[in-house]
Design brief:
75% helix, 410 residues, 6% strand
């Protein structure tokens, strides 16, 4: 019979245990005498505490430096870095599907081709369906703003029971007229911008090649994804491979939860909102649904904007109180489904970023790096969260934190 209990830590910070073993007989008919022996716990990933701490600190510094390098390359060599980054992102998102086919015995090249063919068909179908829908919805925008400025004010006044200030009425009317004029001139303006951009042949060709090369690079990155991972893994010192693998697994868990999870959640919510608003016979129901669905990636923003646009649509196409009830029910069901069913099943708690952290990250990265910073704000914050968690965990195991100094000569 053998029992063990942890009694403290050794000088490297690892837990030690004392095992009490009944191994020595005292005599006939007598109980065995217990024997005490100190047993060292297994080092983390084959490394002692000081060495593991050093590896974690170096890994954290490398991750922060890599993020800085990415933003630096995007700022200096955006024309080259953006296509490569987009291709790597696409390969990262699609890799699980190819890996699943590979486990079923499909050659990786054929699996990559099948996944790309499926994505191409899905994208083509979405474009063929959505482009006419958005074109028809965009054609309604000028009348939408004119009606908004002319009909919303009287209905708001009827709800409030007293007239709005003349200055507010005048500004809303001017806003509706200017918005209508702006939208009507948006097509010719866009055409002129495209023509001006195309006139600069070098820039136009570089941008066109950059867009065309993204799927080609993504295909080869996806096909050679295991080799790329093995190449990076081969640069890690052999003794530190296990610990570094675990850290990258944590980063992968966080990133996959955001990239794959949030996009899936946004698509589901877009369909849900668009269907509900269409049943309510709201103008631009699909546009509002897509904005509210994918805008949900920024906490509260998508839902707030969607509710405002939907209520404006209700005022412009008022057919009865049932519309208001259906719109309210759509967003209520969407939020309940997202909070209790969709996000827990699709994302879970892997990202672990609070709503306040996401909002602050988007504002900060947007201010520092513009639109690119907004796109990369949450993934970068998720990586930095893992780095911070690792650094804090190591710090809390150091003698300077625990207050257990090392004995001289021990």
């Amino acid at each position: 019979m053998e029992r063990s209990a942890v009694i403290g830590r050794n000088k490297r910070g690892k837990a030690q245990a004392v095992k009490v073993s009944a191994v020595k007989e005292s005599g006939a008919g007598q109980a065995p005498e217990p024997t005490l022996r100190v047993v060292r716990s297994e080092p983390e990933g084959g490394l002692e505490e000081l060495e593991a701490r050093r590896v974690d600190f170096i890994w954290s510094a490398v991750m922060v430096g890599a993020l800085g390098l990415v933003f630096g390359l995007l700022s200096v060599f955006g024309g080259v870095a953006v296509p490569v980054l987009l291709a790597l992102s696409g390969a990262y998102v699609l890799n699980p599907f190819v890996t699943a086919l590979e486990r079923r015995g499909v050659d990786r090249t054929w699996g990559t081709s099948a996944v790309f063919a499926g994505c191409t068909l899905l994208l083509a179908g979405a474009v063929l369906y959505l482009v006419p829908v958005f074109r028809d919805e965009a054609a309604k925008l000028p009348d939408f703003f004119v009606k908004a400025s002319g009909q919303v004010i009287p209905r708001v006044e009827a709800l409030l029971g007293h007239p709005l200030p003349d200055l507010l009425r005048q500004r809303m009317t001017e806003l509706g007229g200017r918005a209508s004029e702006l939208l009507q001139s948006a097509g010719p303006t866009a055409a002129r911008l495209v023509a001006s951009f195309a006139g600069n042949t070098a820039r136009f060709v570089a941008t066109l090649l950059g867009l065309l090369v993204v799927p080609v690079l993504a295909f080869f990155f996806l096909q050679d994804y295991p080799q790329l991972v093995s190449l990076v893994r081969g640069l890690v010192p052999r003794r530190a491979v296990g610990l570094v693998d675990r850290r990258f697994a944590e980063v992968d868990e966080v990133l996959s939860a955001f990239v794959r999870g949030q996009l899936t959640v946004g698509a589901i919510l877009s369909v849900l909102y668009s269907a509900g608003l269409s049943f309510a016979r709201i103008d631009m129901a699909i546009v509002i649904g897509v904005i509210a669905g994918f805008g949900n990636m920024v906490p509260y923003l998508g839902t707030g904007v969607g509710i405002v646009l939907a209520m404006l649509g209700v005022m412009l196409s008022w057919q009865g109180a049932w519309q208001l009830a259906l719109v309210a029910g759509t967003f209520l069901v969407g939020q309940l489904a997202e909070g209790f069913f969709i996000t827990p099943r699709v994302v879970g708690d892997k990202v672990g970023l609070s709503s306040v952290s996401v909002i602050i990250a988007i504002l900060a990265f947007g201010e520092l790096f513009g639109f690119t910073g907004i796109l990369l704000a949450v993934p970068s914050t998720a990586i930095l969260k893992v780095v911070l968690r690792v650094v804090v965990a190591r710090y809390q195991r150091m003698p300077v934190y625990t207050g257990t100094g090392e004995s001289p000569g021990a």
